[in-house]
Amino acid sequence: MRREAAAAVSKVNAGRPVNLPLPNRGRVPNLAPLMTEKSNVNWAEIEAKPAFRSLLGRKAKFIVTATIFFLAYYLALPILVGYWPDLMKKQVWGKVNIAYVFALSQFFMAWIVAFIYVRVAAKWDKEAAAIIHGH
Fold first, then answer.
1. Which of 57, 99, 107, 131 gives 88 a disulfide partner, CB atoms 3.0 to 4.6 angstroms apart?
2. Over the stretch 13-55, which tens digit does the pLDDT of each residue have?
3. What is the pLDDT of residues 119-130, one digit of tens each?
4. Is-above-0.70 flag for pTM?
5. Three-class secondary structure assignment of the chain
6. Cα–Cα distance between 25 and 1 in angstroms, integer?
7. Greatest CA span in the chain, whole angstroms?
């Protein structure tokens, strides 16, 4: 397969596209029926429901709060290094200083925020499904 692809690429003529073999033997799935299906859900009615509005409000509150927290945590490092360099130069373990520890903690914080978001979003999805299906 690699030799065929390499040979096909080397046969490019005047910028014309090369027909490389597709991994699924040239069959491209027809996705058009999925995009044109009619939904039997009355979205305007769901949007007017107090439960749906409450869900949107809670989602917005969580997302805005998490974003502000993450940005504050992220921007704290350059601010601390800029205004309190002596504090950030303090060595905590060998030659590792507070600035390095804080920078490393940002990776962990990003993963923690992502983990919390995924857990909370799963609950929102279940609640949205219950609202849509009228439970």
1. 99
2. 455 655 655 566 666 665 555 656 677 778 888 889 999 999 9
3. 999 999 999 999
4. no
5. CHHHHHHHHHCCCCCCCCCCCCCCCCCCCCCHHHHHCCCCCCHHHHHHCHHHHHHHHHHHHHHHHHHHHHHHHHHHHHHHHHHCHHHHHCEEECCEEHHHHHHHHHHHHHHHHHHHHHHHHHHHHHHHHHHHCCC
6. 12
7. 65
